[in-house]
Amino acid sequence: MADIRTVTPDFAVAPQLLPEEVAFAAAQGFTLLINNRPDGEVEGQPTSAQMHAAAQAAGLDYSHIPVVGGPTHDQTQEVFDLVEKAQGPVLAFCRSGTRSIVTWSKGQYEHNHRSRDELIALGAAAGYDLGPVLA
Fold first, then answer.
1. Range of the domain at 112
2. For residues 68-85, b (16+ Cβ closer than 10 Å) or e, as one string?
3. How many domains does the chain have?
4. 24-37 per-position pLDDT tens digit
5. Could you give the count of Cα atoms lying within 13 Å of 131 in the half-sphere of its Cβ?
6. pTM given for the model
7. CATH number for position 126
8. b/e for 27-60, b at 16 or more Cβ within 10 A?
């Protein structure tokens, strides 16, 4: 089953989800699924089209914001805007969840929505070290 890690009541991250796990995410109350993984990163990973179809079938909104390496300002802005406008909790995923939480946390920090210390604590509670990326 999906390894969903709650960051805040409105945002969580996960390592790669499979299409068959998306209905579980919807049952957990998520309303938006953000895929931060580029298509074709590794052989056999589900494509964005497959994940979009699974999200639609489960009644979730879907966005594909592929991050390679570190997120760009445009990507952090897009995730920030999506989370702010979401009609409920958001679940973002990538290979390990790291790119997803980094992209979200940088957007939170850039908009002075949360402090560096708060973001580092939230990341640590979810199993991620955000200190180096929020310097």
1. 5-134
2. eeebeeebbbbbbebbee
3. 1
4. 999 999 999 999 99
5. 5
6. 0.96
7. 3.90.190.10
8. eeebbbbbbbbbeeeeeebbebeebbebbeebeb
